[in-house]
Amino acid sequence: MPVRARHTLLAAAWLHDVGYAPRLASTGFHPIDGARHLASLGWSPEICGLVAHHSGARFVADLQGLGDQLDEFEFVEDALTDALTVADQTSGPQGQPLTLEDRMQNMLSRHGSDSVNARAHPQRARYFRSAWARVAARRLVLSPDIGSLVPLAS
Predict the structure, then answer these.
(1) Among 121, 119, 114, 105, which Cα is nearest to 63's?
(2) Which helix (H) or strand (E) holds 140?
(3) Nearest to residue 12, comparing CAs of 35, 30, 41, 28?
(4) What is d(CA 49, CA 152) in angstroms, rounded to the nearest whole number?
(5) How many Å apart are CA 86 and CA 78, to the nearest integer?
(6) Which residue pairs from 53-57 have beta carbons closer than 8 angstroms and sit at least 24 positions apart in sequence?
(7) Segment 91-147, tens digit of pLDDT
(8) Angular region, 42: left φ>0, alpha ψ -120 to 50, beta rest
(9) pLDDT tens per residue, range 54-74
(10) What is the mean pLDDT of the segment spanning 141-154?
């Protein structure tokens, strides 16, 4: 992965949940609120798009009637999107490592069976597993120790 792409991924990984900050809430949907805030600060459209669309946000946004607002930011399904999704979906709420399946179960438990996250889960779960398969096929992982994409050990 080119150096520029690595830097973009790292920035998006650090910033993807900035929209949870209460003072940034305009829609109440953190991917949109965070991406809008970053855009207002001059962050690149690529990073704003990654933040807006991280972890299958489009499936939840559609159920909340926010799909048009999410469309302000371009969605690209590529190695960066997949890597950000896998990183987010294999880290727990306190940053602890989780398997993808454990993370999905954790999300469903935290948000409840009647939540918009639970209603979006069938689509998001398919997307998460597909992203995981693509990342595994590329044989790359994000290494927190060195802040870079590195090949998986054989």
Answers:
(1) 119
(2) strand 140-143
(3) 35
(4) 27
(5) 12
(6) 53/81, 54/12, 54/16, 54/81, 54/84, 54/85, 54/88, 55/16, 55/84, 55/85, 55/88, 55/89, 55/124, 55/128, 56/85, 56/120, 56/123, 56/124, 56/127, 56/128, 57/29, 57/31, 57/32
(7) 988 889 999 999 999 999 999 999 999 999 999 999 999 999 999 888 755 555 444
(8) left
(9) 999 999 999 999 999 999 999
(10) 49
Matching residue, tokens 């639970």? 118
Query: Locate tokens 């120790």: which residue?
Result: 145
Q: Taking 60 as the threshold, does the pLDDT of residue 148 lie above it?
A: no
Eight-class DSSP state of 54: G
Residue 1, both tokens: 């992965």
One-letter amino acid identity for 29?
F
Number of helices (H) and strands (E) in the chain: give both, helices first: 8, 2
